[in-house]
């Protein structure tokens, strides 16, 4: 698709780029760690000899958060990430691109069927490690994972914030970052989502987190927010 590309520019986020097409539209993109292969049907872009993957914000909450004004992306080159709710690998594959071969992405997913798809993605990504496990029981995967710089949590559970806190206490380094995708409708369908976002952020504050930002992900994900927090240990 290089003939339709006007430019690829760096953003303020490390290893996150903006691809501008000839028609003037722009999209986020990441350098493809597995050239020639897409993960979820995303467009592959070649520019100045480098292949990029278009990053669809309607398919990835992290991309949505970046477009909605995330102040800092703790996912950077060389960091270690524990990703709870890795699913079939859409966002984990972009995280894999960003951290490059020097980094590691431990992808925990509960569904055996979905993990099979994640394994196929990981076969071409030496820094992505699929783990079939329940995030509510981190002891089951404790032997497989070292302490990490970033904990990314995207799980549809009523106690999703408690699960994030529990895993952080075991795996997240002091001063490490949490990216928590809050799914309001999984917590309480009767409450205003904004109220839920505030309550869950307060819960983090009570558990040694410094909440840096709460981003409503609409229109990319309705009734969802991304929380960026720093773990004080």
TrEMBL record:
Q: Which residues cross the membrane?
A: none
Organism, scientific name: Acidianus hospitalis (strain W1)
Query: What GO biological process terms does the UniProt entry carry, in alphabetical order?
Result: box C/D sno(s)RNA 3'-end processing; tRNA processing
* Subunit composition and interactions: Interacts with nop5. Component of box C/D small ribonucleoprotein (sRNP) particles that contain rpl7ae, FlpA and nop5, plus a guide RNA. These sRNP particles form homodimers, giving rise to an asymmetric holoenzyme.
**Record-given protein name:** Fibrillarin-like rRNA/tRNA 2'-O-methyltransferase
Annotated function: Involved in pre-rRNA and tRNA processing. Utilizes the methyl donor S-adenosyl-L-methionine to catalyze the site-specific 2'-hydroxyl methylation of ribose moieties in rRNA and tRNA. Site specificity is provided by a guide RNA that base pairs with the substrate. Methylation occurs at a characteristic distance from the sequence involved in base pairing with the guide RNA.
EC?
A: 2.1.1.-
Record-annotated residues binding S-adenosyl-L-methionine? 90-91, 109-110, 134-135, 154-157
Coiled coil feature spans: none
User: Which is one GO molecular function term here?
Assistant: RNA binding
Q: Domain of life here?
A: Archaea
Q: Which UniProt keywords apply?
A: Kinase, Methyltransferase, RNA-binding, rRNA processing, Serine/threonine-protein kinase, Transferase, tRNA processing
Q: Which family does it belong to?
A: Belongs to the methyltransferase superfamily. Fibrillarin family.
- List the Pfam families: Fibrillarin (PF01269)
Listed InterPro entries: Fibrillarin (IPR000692), Fibrillarin_CS (IPR020813), SAM-dependent_MTases_sf (IPR029063)
Which SMART domains does the entry link to? Answer: Fibrillarin
């Amino acid at each position: 698709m290089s003939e339709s590309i006007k430019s690829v520019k760096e953003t303020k986020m490390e290893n996150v780029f903006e691809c501008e097409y000839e028609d003037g539209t722009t999209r986020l993109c990441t350098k493809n760690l597995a050239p020639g292969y897409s993960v979820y049907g995303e467009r592959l872009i070649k520019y100045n000899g480098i292949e990029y993957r278009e990053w669809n914000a309607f398919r990835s909450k992290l991309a949505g958060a970046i477009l909605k004004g995330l102040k800092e992306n703790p996912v950077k080159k060389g960091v270690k990430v524990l990703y709870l709710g890795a699913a079939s690998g859409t966002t984990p594959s972009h995280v894999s691109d960003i951290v490059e071969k020097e980094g590691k992405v431990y992808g925990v997913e509960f569904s055996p069927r979905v993990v099979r798809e994640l394994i196929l993605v990981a076969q071409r990504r030496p820094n992505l490690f699929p783990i079939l496990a329940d995030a509510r029981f981190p002891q089951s995967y404790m032997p497989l994972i070292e302490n990490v710089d970033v904990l990314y949590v995207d799980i549809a559970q009523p106690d999703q914030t408690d699960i994030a806190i529990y895993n952080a206490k075991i795996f997240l380094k002091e001063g490490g970052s949490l990216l928590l995708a809050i799914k309001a409708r999984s917590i309480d369908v009767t409450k205003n989502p904004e109220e839920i976002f505030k309550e869950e952020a307060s819960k983090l504050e009570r558990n040694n987190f410094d909440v840096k930002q709460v981003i409503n992900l609409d229109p990319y994900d309705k009734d969802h927010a991304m929380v960026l927090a720093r773990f004080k240990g």
